[in-house]
Recover the amino acids of this structure.
């Protein structure tokens, strides 16, 4: 039977190259200053939702909270098979910790309404907290199945899932609606389809209209472009704090109990160390020293 | 907000065995409570687990809150969250600590969300200290300073929760050192009766498949670890061989685990295991801080890397700039020669 699924996804900065230039005065990160990617575990969450829809019918809506540029991962999701996409974007969401983030996401899921399943990646590579999934479930009043590896069965209002636990796995049966967080080993995410890539190439949020018009002036003005996209179901809705009925004091920095007190760049203490040449003689004398000092042997 | 500044530790047990990380946290919790001049309390949930309370007192708890109920025999999010949330709401502790196990990372955010308070995951250090908010022109005294690597390990962040209570944090196994038990310590055990709601049982555990890990990273005196520089299974076999010659265990950085070369059981670092072996060999590991957080207290570190500027070299006792595919076999050979 068909199920209505929502997948929570996140655009994350590629954390490999970071300098002081990307830090704000509050100690938070200026995400705009870094290359952004689709959070890896979220692709597994999307795949699990798409595979379920392909087998059972229903719809998959992807939802992300982020700056206007986060529309890129919504489009990527459409290319891979998602039915709908929603961008949650408002200055009032900025600086949110996991509590404020989960509140906004839960309000948006409620606005989507009549949701049977919510999927999220296990954790995002920028924070590695794995907190937003469970916290969103709590806010929605749904049970949670964390570290999901596979859906073993679904029927009526019950789902059976295999999940990872420490040193093993567990099979659980849960009433719907519920929220799953999906581990990276769960599946191999399908690539974007060429047909869908062409079909959804122009899918856009209203925040991107200016840039689109600069590239394709033949659309005329924003109203004409909006109408054109609307007719073709290429309009990605943008929801603000007001649209989801959120209380301001529970959003963004104001709604975040945790604060970054200080951030230190890692200064490595210079240990007294020896260079060992990568030669037979060098290695042999290293081994001699290790044996002499009772480190080995 | 009440004035008590008690520190709580959620104690995880599975089939009557207390998780190591819970015992480690009691040691840290004791230290924080002493610093605050307050008490350390443990929450113990399970079925027929009263016998475990003594060990928690020996590890530093002043009070063990015992929630003993057949419904709590195995960990499940909602019944456990019900117990912990209710206790916190009633007694208002200052700090609550969780082990960052699969269950702890499932439970802590659920509870923090219900309490609308802050939670910091995978801390590598916890301290008590003051926080001066410039924006509010106000000093918050004696907060829990929650220290963790952030942002791909390029930074160490100190997180505070000035107003939310309790202040909550999770810590990975092995990060804190377990203190020696004091069997003469006195403490109280108090039974608390959980009251569940029907909705707490929306999820049923059908079966559990335990896979006993044969990896003994934490106990091993020697760890030979590979990272992104390990080109494939053949090079990994070289590291296995070296580990075998040294009677050590194979470790890995997250890069090697993510690349599918080794199982997560082998992962050393902030989101893996913390080790303090006599000898740590880091082969093809650049040395991101999350990895270093899990091994920088090793007695001796040998680093092998083709990049002379790799950060791992800055904490290494022995630096070998070279290809691990050449260096590791030389090490194996030299060790075998020595053993003859």
């Amino acid at each position: 039977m068909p199920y209505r699924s929502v997948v929570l996804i996140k655009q994350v900065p590629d954390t490999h190259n970071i300098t002081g230039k990307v830090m704000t005065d509050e100690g938070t990160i200026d995400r705009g200053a870094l290359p952004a990617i689709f959070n890896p575990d979220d692709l597994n969450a999307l795949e699990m939702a798409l595979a379920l829809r392909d087998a059972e019918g229903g719809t998959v809506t992807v939802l992300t909270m982020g700056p206007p540029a986060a529309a890129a991962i919504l489009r990527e999701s459409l290319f891979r098979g998602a039915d709908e996409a929603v961008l949650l974007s408002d200055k009032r969401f900025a600086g949110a910790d996991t509590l404020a983030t989960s509140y906004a996401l839960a309000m948006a899921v409620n606005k989507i309404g009549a949701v049977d399943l919510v999927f999220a990646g296990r954790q995002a590579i920028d924070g590695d907290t794995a907190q937003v999934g469970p916290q969103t479930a709590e806010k929605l009043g749904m049970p949670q199945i964390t570290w999901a590896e596979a859906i073993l069965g679904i029927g009526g209002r019950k789902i059976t899932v295999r999940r990872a636990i420490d040193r093993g796995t567990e099979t659980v049966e849960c009433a719907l609606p519920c929220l799953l967080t999906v581990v990276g080993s769960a599946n191999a995410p399908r690539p974007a389809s060429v047909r869908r890539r062409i079909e959804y190439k122009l899918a856009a949020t209203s925040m991107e209209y200016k840039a689109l018009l600069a590239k394709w002036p033949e659309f005329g003005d924003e109203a004409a472009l909006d109408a054109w996209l609307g007719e073709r179901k290429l309009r990605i809705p943008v929801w603000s704090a007001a649209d989801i009925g959120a209380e301001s004091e529970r959003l963004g920095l104001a709604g975040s109990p945790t604060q970054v007190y200080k951030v230190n760049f890692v200064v490595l203490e210079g240990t007294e160390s020896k260079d060992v040449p990568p030669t037979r003689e060098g290695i042999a004398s290293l081994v001699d020293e290790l044996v002499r000092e009772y480190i080995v042997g | 907000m009440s004035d008590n500044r008690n520190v709580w530790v959620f104690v995880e047990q599975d089939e009557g065995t207390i998780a190591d990380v819970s015992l480690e946290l009691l040691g840290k919790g004791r230290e924080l409570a002493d610093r605050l001049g307050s008490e350390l309390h443990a929450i113990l949930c399970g079925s027929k687990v009263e016998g475990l309370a003594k060990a928690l007192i020996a590890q530093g708890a002043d009070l063990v809150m015992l929630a003993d109920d057949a419904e709590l025999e195995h960990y499940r999010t909602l019944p456990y969250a019900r117990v912990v949330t209710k206790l916190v709401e009633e007694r208002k502790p200052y700090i609550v600590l969780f082990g960052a196990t699969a269950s702890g990372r499932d439970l802590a955010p659920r509870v923090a969300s219900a309490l609308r308070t802050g939670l910091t995951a995978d801390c590598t250090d916890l301290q008590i200290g003051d926080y001066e908010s410039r924006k509010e022109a106000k000093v918050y005294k004696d907060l829990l300073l929650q220290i963790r690597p952030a942002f791909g390990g390029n930074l160490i962040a100190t997180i505070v929760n000035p107003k939310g209570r309790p202040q909550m944090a999770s810590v990975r196994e092995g990060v804190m050192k377990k203190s020696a038990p004091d069997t003469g310590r006195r403490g109280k055990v108090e039974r608390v009766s959980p009251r569940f709601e029907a909705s707490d049982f929306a999820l049923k555990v059908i079966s559990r498949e335990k896979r006993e890990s044969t990896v003994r990273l934490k106990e091993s005196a020697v760890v030979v670890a590979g990272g992104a520089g390990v080109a494939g299974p053949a090079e990994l076999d070289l590291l296995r061989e070296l580990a075998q010659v040294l009677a050590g265990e194979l470790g890995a950085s997250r890069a090697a685990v993510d690349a599918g070369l080794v199982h997560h059981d082998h992962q050393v670092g902030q989101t893996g295991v913390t080790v303090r072996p006599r000898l740590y060999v880091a082969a093809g590991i650049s040395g991101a801080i999350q990895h270093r957080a899990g091994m920088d207290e090793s007695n001796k570190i040998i680093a092998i890397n083709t990049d002379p500027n790799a950060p791992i070299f800055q904490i290494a006792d022995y630096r070998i700039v070279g290809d691990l595919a050449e260096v590791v076999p030389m090490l194996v050979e030299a060790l075998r020669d020595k053993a003859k």
